[in-house]
Amino acid sequence: MADLRTNFLGVKSPNPFWLASAPPTDRKVNVERAFRAGWGGVVWKTLGEAGPPVVNVSGARYAAIHGPDRRLIAMNNIELITDRDLEINLQEIKEVKRAWRDRALIVSLMVPCDEHSWKAILARVEETDCDGVELNFGCPHGMSERGMGSAVGQVPEYVEMVARWCKAHTRMPVIVKLTPNITDIKNPARAAKNGGADAVSLINTINSIMSIDLDAMAPADAIDGKGTHGGMCGPAVKPIALAMVADIARDPECAGLPISAIGGITTWRDAAEFIALGAGTVQVCTAAMTYGFKVVEEMVSGLASYMDSKGYATIDDFRGRAVPSVTDWQHLNLNYVVKAEIDQDLCIQCGRCHIVCEDTSHQAIFAHVNGKRRFVVNEAECVGCNLCALVCPVEGCVTLVHKTSGVDPRTGLRYDRPAAAWTAHPNNPSAAKAAE
């Protein structure tokens, strides 16, 4: 069986699945339940400095978007950092770490943006013998209005400054948690590295209002008639997270910067995709809040089975392998040609491929009626856009097939030659050179 053990910044865990800093990691009883279920590590819910208590709302802290089958697509959260006493949290962290030496235990932190506050809380956290700290520069709600969370993460200069303070005042590994609520994720990642941070984690939640109640004329799940923006997480954010992780993994200025990936990870496959983009660990929240802590069992067994099937003995055997395949649009091969093909044995004649292509695409699928309705692809018009395959309700019925002979949709001429030698598109000079 594949070896799922990880060593991230010298922090060892039996598998790469960590619980992200969130409500599930707010207290000892939760964390120990998670460890008994099989999680490799946790990031303790964000601690703040000792002082006036954090007060969370009483009412709907969460909102959600569901699919037609009631499956949760995304969740919105307006909960603040921990509202439990700092001393209690620190004592529980110490107790958990002593009892679970083989698991990773990282502590998330958020304090005002001054060196004294960071120095003070780092000293307290270090006494717990936890494995490292994660600087929460991501939360887009509540704390950001107080000059913390994403208010820091959106300013690379602040990210670098605070990372440098923390590295100066602790021996523990320092992970910087990045906000996705920014134009270019590479800038704060570079700043974190320049400040001496040992790693980055991403993404934190995306600023959002989930829906509006059209009867109350207020955000849904409002508190006493008023609502606010919150942080969105869950399966819907995974594509955004994948893109941002890839941006950092590909960036020469971030070369060698370890990544702990977060964002919509629900299955072992989701985790494997992030690992293939260079992640050393993956952090999970919404899946645990949807299905409970035992969801990790399927994640662990599924990832191990996948690795066995591919001959990967360890996580590092495939970590980062997909990074070289991610490129910018201008480097895509415009001479590579695919065409849609419809498997008539699988087709249920619903006509969805035809109508979406007819109404919104290239009129490349026509209905052929000869005793029985059939849908046929006109290769001369098909551009291989994939829309028909995406809307088809039968998996595998419509596929894209690489063609080396047929009709060139740009010239209307038949061809029988290697795809790389297709007539160059007038907007692609490099292709014209290649075609020569």
Outline:
With 436 residues, the protein is of the alpha/beta class. It has helices at residues 28-37, 86-99, 115-126, 150-153, 156-169, 186-194, 238-250, 268-276, 286-291, 295-310, 352-360, 387-391, 429-435; strands at residues 6-8, 11-13, 17-19, 41-47, 62-66, 72-77, 104-109, 132-136, 174-177, 199-202, 206-208, 212-213, 218-219, 230-233, 259-262, 281-284, 338-342, 365-369, 373-377, 398-402, 405-407, 414-416.
Q: What sort of overall outline do the alpha carbons produce when their principal axes are compared?
A: globular
**How many DSSP H or I helices?**
13
Mean pLDDT: 90
> Which class best fits the helix and strand makeup?
alpha/beta
Order of adjacent strands in the largest pleated sheet: 3-4-7-8-9-10-15-16
Q: Please indicate the percent range of residues in DSSP E strands (runs of 2 or more).
A: 15-25%
DSSP strand count: 22
Q: For the terminal residues, how far apart are their CA atoms?
A: 50 Å
Radius of gyration: 25 Å
Report on the biggest sheet: 8 strands, parallel, barrel
Low-confidence stretches: 417-436
User: Fraction of residues in helices?
Assistant: 25-40%
Could you walk me through the main structural features you see in this protein, from its secondary elements to its overall organization?
The protein is α/β, with parallel strands linked by helices and 436 residues long. 29% of the residues lie in helices and 21% in strands. The protein contains 13 helices and 22 strands. The chain has helices at 28-37, 86-99, 115-126, 150-153, 156-169, 186-194, 238-250, 268-276, 286-291, 295-310, 352-360, 387-391, 429-435, and strands at residues 6-8, 11-13, 17-19, 41-47, 62-66, 72-77, 104-109, 132-136, 174-177, 199-202, 206-208, 212-213, 218-219, 230-233, 259-262, 281-284, 338-342, 365-369, 373-377, 398-402, 405-407, 414-416. The strands form 7 sheets. The chain has an 8-stranded parallel barrel with strand order 3-4-7-8-9-10-15-16, surrounded by 8 helices. A 4-stranded antiparallel beta sheet has the order 5-6-14-11, with no helix packed on it. A two-stranded antiparallel sheet has the order 1-2. Helix 1 links the parallel strand 3 (17-19) and strand 4. The longest helix is centred in the last third of the chain and has 16 residues, at 295-310. It is globular, with a radius of gyration of 25 Å. It starts with 5 loop residues before the first strand and ends with a helix. 42% of the residues are buried. Mean pLDDT is 90; it is low at 417-436.
